Amino acid sequence: MAQTRWVADRLAESDPGATFQIQSIRTTGDGDPRPLFAMDQKGIFEREVDAAVAQSRVDFAVHSLKDVPSQLPDGLTLACVPKRESARDVLITGDGSSLQSLPRGSIIGTSSLRRAVQIRRSRPDVGVRPIRGNIETRIAKIDGANYHGIVLAQAGISRLNLDVISAALPEDEFVPSPGQGSLAVVSRADDHGLITLLKGIEDADSRLEAEAERALSGYVESGCRFPLGAHASVDGPTMTLRAAAFSADGKKSAVARIAGDRRAPRDLADRTAQDLRRQGVEALASGWRESLEMWNR
After folding, report:
1. Quick one: 161 and 24 in the same domain?
2. Exposed site from 18, 58, 222, 269, fewest CB < 10 Å?
């Protein structure tokens, strides 16, 4: 809702004559209490919302880009990607401890298998426990008994203007989820007037980064249950795409860093995917199912 209000405010600034009414829609992901990586589904936070767009019950939808599948339903389009927030993951604790300074045996909460794997690779002596709920609910669970800290995206904290003590996690070890930090505005592909309005708040670099990360995600067939990290960054005429994929137990990985022409994000994604394939990413993707139970205990 905060993200939707932010988009509506930016659109109103871009076109002062436009007015908006926000409609809330409950999704499958909202009503399922299981850890995200225990759900063998794609689009669990956007399917019902995008159905409302397709059926003309609403004009457009605002999502976290990382929740949007790489292939949208027929008739819908990713109309706008506004300027991206930080893509970093952060650790939130009661006293501002960093991941490395937490005592042995500390319990860290996360709803992401990617983050769980990366935490255990960095600190095999701490515990990782699933956690659900909105951002405020998760933060309230940091009590030193059940959770000593939780890992969240910096973008969500920033958009809610939350005053919390956090420590940024190193980007080379915690490559974020594809699309993390970006918003996705989805509309009907034939609603050309609305698309023109939405394009008024699009950020060109953020769009290119989103296209590269989403293309890579599609090539590798990632999802909430396969821990792929991908982060593209534009610097002048160049775009660099970093990617990291892990086995579910965190013991094996495939890591790539490829630079190329910013105007060809899909080519960059394809070359990065090829590098990951040479390192055996398919074996990582097929092997995670066998060890998923350890994350559900």
Report:
1. no
2. 18
**Are 211 and 269 within one domain?**
yes
Residues 130, 93: one domain? yes
16-47: pLDDT as tens digits: 999 999 999 887 656 555 555 555 556 667 88
CB 68 within 8 A of CB 186: yes
Q: Where are the alpha helices (DSSP H) in the chain?
A: 2-14, 28-31, 47-54, 113-122, 135-140, 154-159, 192-199, 204-220, 265-278, 281-287, 293-296
Interatomic CA distance for residues 288 and 98, integer angstroms: 28
| Domain count within the chain | 2
Tell me which residues are annotated as active site. Answer: 67
Torsion of Cα atoms, 282 then 231 then 84 then 181, to 10°:
60
Rounded to whole angstroms, how far apart are CA atoms 128 and 132?
13
In the predicted model, what is the mean pLDDT of residues 184-191? 98
- First-last CA distance in the chain: 32
Burial 228-266 (b: 16+ CB within 10 A, else e): bbbbbbbeeeebbbbbbbbbbbbeebbebebebebeebe
Report CA-CA distances (Å) from 146 to 74, 94, 266. Answer: 44, 13, 43
294 within some domain: no
Task: State the residue range of the domain holding 52.
Answer: 2-85+178-287
| Cα–Cα nearest to 64, from 54, 78, 76, 74 | 78
Whole-structure pTM value:
0.88
CA distance 114 to 21: 35
pLDDT digits (tens, 9 = 90+) for 119-146: 999 999 999 999 988 889 899 999 878 8
